[in-house]
Amino acid sequence: MTSGEVGPRREPSVLPVLPVLRVCFVCTGNICRSPMAEVVLRQLAAAAVLDDGTRLGDHLAVESAGTGNWHAGEPMDPRATDVLAAAGYADPGHRARAFEAAWLDRTDLVVSMARSHHQTLSGLARQRSGGDEAGLGERLVLLRSYDRRAGASVDVPDPYYGDRSDFEACLEMIEAACAGLVTSLAARVSVRRAAQSPGAPKRTSESSS
Fold first, then answer.
1. pLDDT digits (tens, 9 = 90+) for 50-73
2. Among 26, 58, 64, 134, which residue is least crowded by beta carbons within 10 Å?
3. 58 catalytic, yes or no?
4. Is 147 labeled as catalytic in the residue annotation?
5. pTM summary value
């Protein structure tokens, strides 16, 4: 190469685009606990920066549902939206819906708010798989299992029949558990991206010249 000539351009290495991880929170009617958790996780994930500079929220699809259709089509309970707003969270226009068994095939993590929901979903999963429970423990989880301080208190109590203080306590539990869930999901996404990488970039005398 003579003086003044420009060598071949080196394009920066780009990781392949991976499918997002789908997370679905599940409670009873999908108007209190699960949509609150959906809103909290979305905001925390949007703020979480991964090692490669991307944000966790870019790699997630977060949703919620109920084990029944009692409130299908209804907005979030106004007490839930009020408590979320007071803490700096915005309701994206939630509408309640019931969890469908077919979603188990496309959801990476189904997060139950209480043991009763977990039991219902486990039953759906066993029916759909013909009794095969392989991998269920990894995909069907309890939200408070991500909060080390929860101890034996694995349920997020239903605030529906309570007052504002019950919704505030509910949000505190959700925030604490979602913080741990963010850490877990960030590690999971990083492992997936590393596995798909053609090779970690190496700094050599050649590449730096």
1. 998 999 999 999 999 999 999 999
2. 134
3. no
4. no
5. 0.85
